[in-house]
Amino acid sequence: MKRPHDPFPGDDASAFALENVADAVFAVDSDFIVRYCNLAAAEIARCAPAEALGRTCREVFGVKNCRNVCVLRQSMDEARPIANRIVTLKRTGCPDVPVSISAAPIWAMGGTVVGGVQVFRDLSGSGFVSRLTGLQPQDDFGTCDAQLSEIVRMLPQIAQSDSTVLLLGESGTGKEIFSRAIHKLSQRHAGPFVAVNCGALPEQLMESELFGYKSGAFTDARKDKPGRFALAETGTLFLDEIGDLPYAMQAKILRALQERAFEPLGGVETIPADVRVVAATNRDLGRMVAEGAFRQDLYYRLSVVVLRIPPLRERLGDVPLLTERLLGRCRMAVSKNIGTVSPEAMARLMAHDYPGNIRELENIIEYASILCQGTTIELCHLPEQLRGEVSDCPARGARTMAQIREQAAREAVSRHGGNRNAACRELGISKDTLRRILGRRDEDD
Ligand SMILES: Nc1ncnc2c1ncn2[C@@H]1O[C@H](COP(=O)(O)OP(=O)(O)OP(=O)(O)O)[C@@H](O)[C@H]1O
């Protein structure tokens, strides 16, 4: 039976709703004993929701570094909600998982904090998009944007259809990543994926590159050479920058698409093409048609399914997620243990308009990872156009370990509004150690 004023969700509609959200949600009492755990949280804990109840959250989730990163404890200590803190959870026997955590205290009547609720989202890329599409984490798109999520949701159906797909989007928005995902989700996934950048092929070589040639077709053609259409047989041909195709080539591509066949240069025989075409462009094909620069018939043939990938500035909410993903890549490349981005640096990253889209963010994160000597990317590690006036990193320059330790301790105490117990918990040290680090002059603070 439901108790009056029970602050924890019981057998009611709100608990039912919480069960079904994709984010992990759990609630604890003031002793950090789990009183509620939804399905997503139980999945992370690798137990049934009922098995999580009555145990400490530390025990349930098995997080080794939970003392240092406990956002829930901080929220309860400071009696205030904390939103979207990105931390890396380290669990015994599991790979590190970057998560975004929001926490809020639960108050009893009279205003006492009697517990807390925490919501966390897995940012590792093995989250909801992977589950939705069945893709491997590296193929995941790192988005919480409604428009893009809708495209991702439709992707398996689109991929299965074998229709031509036209991807529209600015340079660096991830069009090639999408085309690879379409291939992997399609019936053709066991076949080859062949990418051609139409803008990078010299005009005189384009026909032979795409359709191949027979020996003797021209002076240097000593033996037959297959083109990209033949190489993509039974698979997917990705025609990137299709807007850059010369007008004459457009007719040949149209014919290959319509008749599902082509003739190699210098050949007389027509070769059937069992190829699915995904095309992409950052140009306005509609306008090019109106200006007579692009064939209308090819435009219609390509536009069976059109997907517009939004630029990053229209989905800045994805910046933390993408940053975490890109940091993971850099961590491996530069062999550094960079775990987080400071709130100030993240605010700057989220205020940028990214004319180069995800490719630009990728470069920024790589730059910052190279400069960063610690575990957190700070404002001073960002490229000049983002960091503005901030020049040198406070951590740079010669400092002793004792000075670094003292600064970390002071910052923790100040973050907790002077609450030393909370600072000790965050740092994972005893009160005696904190006192030793801060020195005698702080005894009377
Ligand atoms: N969701 C994502 N997660 C992580 N990295 C991504 C994501 N989308 C794109 N990238 C990275 O951004 C860069 C640009 O992506 P991609 O080449 O797919 O973009 P594009 O739109 O095809 O660009 P272009 O039009 O210039 O060819 C790549 O290095 C890719 O790895």
TrEMBL record:
InterPro entries: AAA+_ATPase (IPR003593), AAA_lid_NorR (IPR058031), Homeodomain-like_sf (IPR009057), P-loop_NTPase (IPR027417), PAS (IPR000014), PAS-like_dom_sf (IPR035965), PAS_4 (IPR013656), Sigma_54_int (IPR002078). Transmembrane segments: none annotated. Residues 148-370 form the Sigma-54 factor interaction domain. It comes from the Bacteria. Pfam families: AAA_lid_14, PAS_4, Sigma54_activat. Keywords: ATP-binding, DNA-binding, Nucleotide-binding, Transcription, Transcription regulation. Signal peptide: none annotated. GO terms for molecular function: ATP binding; DNA binding. GO terms for biological process: regulation of DNA-templated transcription. PANTHER family: TRANSCRIPTIONAL REGULATORY PROTEIN. This is PAS domain-containing protein. It comes from Solidesulfovibrio aerotolerans. The lineage of its organism: Bacteria, Pseudomonadati, Thermodesulfobacteriota, Desulfovibrionia, Desulfovibrionales.
